[in-house]
């Protein structure tokens, strides 16, 4: 099994814990930074804050590794860059002049998120000191691509990696990746503002193949399936107080495409109500019971036409201009919501293809990780 970590989410948790602990510590206080005497106008982390942050990063990473145990193959950290979606959205609204009110007139992707002015000091320290040590000594992989969000890289890795995957993130948009016909993909989410840590698993697990019967899926015994690695990982995570939730990824993505996502300021389609949206989703799954995600990813014309007719019927729309706008808005929502390499812009997909064609994923070295974790003063 591979562990894929949303690096920005991981760092935000580590920073939050470090800042909270430091604020209660008289040696640190609310200001966890000081002026850099050797670089006028610049700042640096206080030594105690830097040490606490470093120690927590390794302790926290270890807590994500332990439930996978000896079946862990590789660890991947992915990080955000400037999102292609912002440029795509800006271009969309410049070129789309809606004649009716059936589509949004403006859109702010992910809203206006605020950050601590000095928080970058933790990010810089992690990228310049901690991550190189993890990469060079422990074989941990790290990725960041211009114009690409971490979610996009995670989606690409879910397509590339042949092993089962455990994803760590605070972004529940990644639940749509849990449905994969070739492997088991699990998603774990820390508490944040909720009461419990969450573990999202597919409705049906993909069984492991027996070593002596690799090509005969139907020869797998119930006992073999029950003792699979992924089942053990799920059990281990639940013992660490993760609450298990089964995910219907098809319903997840259809709901977001039709009804939008308030957390990211993504507008719903043509004033659809949740009740109408639920009916359209049920009709869609009934008509295409096993292929909805594939049809979404290929923007299949017949499938898109079916959704448009369902939306038009639900809202009693017959005007041709409004129906055209529904089509435009529907495809817009699919492109910014769906995490699939099939709907990524060509330049993003090609850049990822070229990088991973030349890149060799390294295996995780648990022994060296333990050595580094026990000797953090060396970095």
Write the layout of secondary structure elements.
Elements (H helix, E strand, L loop, with lengths): L1 E5 H17 L9 E3 L7 E3 L1 H19 L9 E4 L5 H12 L24 H19 L2 E3 L6 H11 L4 E4 L16 E5 L7 E6 L19 H5 L2 H11 L2 E6 L1 H11 L14 H14 L4 H6 L3 H14 L5 H18 L8 H13 L7 H8 L6
Parallel strand pairs: 1-4, 1-6, 4-5, 6-7, 8-9
Antiparallel strand pairs: 2-3, 7-8
Give a brief outline of the structure:
By secondary structure, this protein is an alpha/beta fold.
Task: Looking at this protein, list some descriptive labels.
2 domains, 379 residues, alpha/beta, Rossmann fold, 9 strands, 14 helices, seven-stranded mixed β-sheet
Count of DSSP helices? 14
Which spans of ≥5 residues are poorly predicted at pLDDT below 50?
Answer: 211-227
Count of spatially separate domains: 2
Q: Estimate percent helicity.
A: 40-55%
CATH architecture of the largest domain: 3-Layer(aba) Sandwich
**What overall geometry do the principal axes of the alpha carbons give?**
globular
User: Radius of gyration over alpha carbons?
Assistant: 23 Å
Strand order of the largest sheet: 5-4-1-6-7-8-9
The average pLDDT score comes to 86
- Class by alpha and beta content: alpha/beta
Largest sheet: 7 strands, mixed
Strand content: 5-15%
How are helices and strands ordered from N to C? EHEEHEHHEHEEEHHEHHHHHHH
Q: Would you tell me which CATH topology of the largest domain applies?
A: Rossmann fold
Under CATH at level 1, the class of the largest domain stands as Alpha Beta
Number of strands: 9
Oligomeric composition of the shown chains: single chain
Q: How far apart, in Å, are the first and last alpha carbons?
A: 28 Å
CATH superfamily of the largest domain, called what? 5'-nuclease
